[in-house]
Amino acid sequence: MIVAFSVTPLGVGEDVGAYVAEAVRVVRASGLPNRTDAMFTSIEGEWDEVMDVVKRAVAAVEARAPRVSVVLKADIRPGVTDGLTRKVETVERHLAEQ
């Protein structure tokens, strides 16, 4: 499964980069395939391991902020691995055909 999620601290002002970095540190330390962009961090693995990482990432932000907002989207597709890379490669292949 692939989970794309964002963790936003609330009540800490406009500059939230240091808070978000705490969540991303947790994801990267997990050893699971992941990718971070301007809006979301995506992580790939089995349900329990991915959700554990998301929970710990949220907790890292929650430890420093009075309130936390989480947005989560999941692609649950048993038997698929390396989806983070393969899905993008498929789109790039179609783009190159034109």
UniProtKB/TrEMBL annotation:
**Known InterPro entries for this protein?**
MTH1187/YkoF-like (IPR029756), Thiamine_BP (IPR002767), UPF0045_domain (IPR051614)
SUPFAM superfamilies assigned = MTH1187/YkoF-like
- Domain Thiamine-binding protein residue range list: 3-92
Q: Which NCBIfam families match?
A: MTH1187 family thiamine-binding protein
The entry's family comment says:
Belongs to the UPF0045 family.
The record's PANTHER family line, in alphabetical order, gives: UPF0045 PROTEIN ECM15
Q: What is this protein called?
A: MTH1187 family thiamine-binding protein
